[in-house]
Design brief:
The complex is a heterodimer of chains A (about 110) and B (about 120). With about 110 residues, chain A is mostly beta strands. In chain A, about 0% of the residues lie in helices and about 45% in strands. In chain A, a hairpin with a 7-residue loop joins strand 7 and strand 8. In chain B, strands 2, 4, 5, 6, 9, 10 and 11 form a seven-stranded mixed beta sheet that branches. In chain B, strands 1-3-8-7 form a four-stranded antiparallel beta sheet, with no helix packed on it. In chain B, a hairpin with a 6-residue loop joins strand 5 and strand 6. The chains are: A mainly beta (about 110), B mainly beta (about 120). The interface between A and B is medium-sized, with 24 and 23 residues.
């Protein structure tokens, strides 16, 4: 089955830049989406279609794509950005099967 | 504002089935796909399947093929996810989410399913 691979954890000091990668064979043919999930809460969409930011999401969140890897960047990370982050995309089967990445715990301290 | 409100927590015995509902409001239900996602305790997100509320068409993850059925009742703007043959591995929080401007632009509050004998 199709897999998206993320690093288990990323640590960053407040005000610094955090980068979270997601690798998958169907990039760049398929779009990537990024979700933030804080403890005990439902996920929140922070980036869609590789690099678009939904309304209400701070500008410090950005997305990019290069080959088979997509990246979520948090520029000037804040304490409140500490959360789990998941990438999401679809496989190339033609049956639209979604898949989430393995998840990355971002620690801001 | 757009809302997805899910049914309450469930406790089921191994081998049983569970149905979770997801009621949509403040938008046209038939215009946007609904996806179902689950999260086992301490684990990551797992995509289960999606529903086209207009046609009733579905796509399912291979891991759940044959055990999951997603349906809808357009008269009450509600989607349903039924999972059969429950085991302890199915204990999780189940979420519905909308594919609006983007997949997952709105999420339900989650429904905890406990599987215990």
């Amino acid at each position: 089955s199709y897999e998206l691979t993320q690093p288990p954890s990323v640590s960053v000091s407040p005000g610094q830049t955090a980068r979270i990668t997601c690798s998958g064979d169907t990039f760049p043919k398929k779009y990537a989406y990024w979700y933030q999930q804080k403890s005990g809460q439902a996920p929140v969409l922070v980036i869609y279609e590789d690099a678009k930011r939904p309304s209400g999401i701070p500008e410090r969140f950005s997305g990019s794509s290069s080959g088979t890897m997509v990246t979520l960047t948090i520029s000037g990370a804040q304490v409140e950005d500490e959360a789990d982050y998941y990438c999401y995309s679809t496989d190339s089967s033609g049956n639209h099967r979604g898949v989430f990445g393995t998840g990355t715990k971002v620690t801001v301290l | 504002q757009v809302q997805l409100v899910q049914s309450g927590a469930e406790v089921k015995k191994p081998g049983a089935s569970v149905t979770v509902s997801c009621k949509a409001s403040a938008y046209t239900f038939t215009n946007y796909y609904i996806h179902w996602v689950r999260q086992a305790p301490g684990q990551g997100l797992e995509w289960m399947g999606r529903l086209n509320p207009n046609s009733g068409g579905t796509n399912y993850a291979q891991n759940f093929q044959g055990r999951v059925t997603i349906t809808r009742d357009t008269s009450i703007s509600t989607a349903y996810m039924e999972l059969t043959g429950l085991t302890s591995a199915d204990a999780a929080v189940y979420y519905c989410t909308r594919e609006g401007a983007a997949t997952g632009d709105h999420w339900g509050q989650g429904t905890l399913v406990t599987v215990s004998s």
